[in-house]
Amino acid sequence: MILVAHQLALGLLGTLALFGALVFRGHDSEAIWALLGLIVWGALALTSGNVAVFNESTGEFISVGSPTIQFVCLAAAAVSAIALYGAVFHTATSEGVRA
How many folded domains does the chain comprise? Predict the structure, then answer.
């Protein structure tokens, strides 16, 4: 179970990581940013189906799930995976390594 505040914080971190991977295109740190984005968006995709919201009237946490949020997180994880593949492939070809 993940709280809404944690979900928003992870979403912000994932967005910053994906933005960092796209801004530092061709830089040495591009793969690190893309990997961070892939990990964060993947974690969000796995946990966003069980988001906890505090109900003040009962004093308990209520679990709320959203397949739309999971789909968006999976799409962002796919973009991060493509960016990671591109960063690793670019580094390998620029250093003369062939698959």
Answer: 1
Phi/psi for 96 (5° steps) reads 85, 15
Q: How far apart (Å, rounded) are the C-alpha atoms in residues 45 and 67?
A: 9
The domain of 77 spans 2-94
pLDDT in tens, the chain (99 residues): 667 777 788 888 888 888 887 786 666 777 888 888 889 988 888 887 777 777 888 888 877 777 888 888 889 899 889 888 888 876 666 666 555
Helix axes 67-94, 4-23, angle to 10 degrees: 30
Within-domain flag for 62: yes
By DSSP bridging, strand 51-55 and strand 60-64 are antiparallel
Rounded distance, CA 16 to CA 4, Å?
18
